[in-house]
Design goal:
Elements: E1 3-10, H1 12-25, E2 27-28, E3 39-47, H2 52-58, E4 64-71, E5 81-90, E6 93-102, H3 120-125, E7 132-148, E8 152-165, H4 174-180, E9 188-195, H5 201-209, E10 214-215, H6 219-227
Antiparallel strand pairs: 1-9, 1-10, 2-7, 3-4, 3-7, 4-5, 5-6, 7-8, 8-9
Amino acid sequence: MIRIETKFILNNWQFEIFRQRCQMMFKRDQNLLPEINQYPIFSAYFDTPALDAYHQKKDGEFSHHKIRIRSYSNKLISNLDSFIEAKLKSKDRQNKIRIPLKFNINLLQPKYWYTIQDPRIFQILYNNEGLQHVANIYYEREAYECDYMEKGKIRVNFDSNICSLPKNILVVTQSTIDTYRLMPENLIVCEIKTPGNNIPKFIQKELKLIRAEQVRISKYAETIDALYENYRDNSIVY
């Protein structure tokens, strides 16, 4: 099934109105923490020394890879529930891999992944020679979803407090957010994931009412731009 992801950057006014409409039309994500109506996402991202995944994304290549370790927490610490995730897209084929595991610091070295008893690890490492940990990304997500006829689910994510973090920062506090915030506090990244080739008309109408403009943005690419804007020869020097 074809699934598209469309992104918008909303100011506070646009966010509050569209959020209210989503609360009326959709169900809230069951993982939202009741006290804050959000949940945290912390991801460690991996790339080749030449930053192949970064350049594929920046150049808009149809074939690209995204590889990360993700936790639903404000930190990466030992024994925390986490996942190795990979989206391996080549031409008209996309392979999504998600391997659950308990985090330990050795996982930040992809050579250690060969010790994991899961054959999908070889799919991830294949054609990603010299894969290495390059950056971390943190944000807080509010999410809603609904069934869309027989086609599948519609999902709307609101991501705030997005932080581009150096790879040595593994715990996020309010001070961390203030220091490494990727965009101004009053801006929210809205992701709309829909089955099929187009956003349904009833959502298009809501977006038109708030004058939302579609953007092409990648948290990973923006993070590399923020952290490594002066790297030499398109590679990260350690």
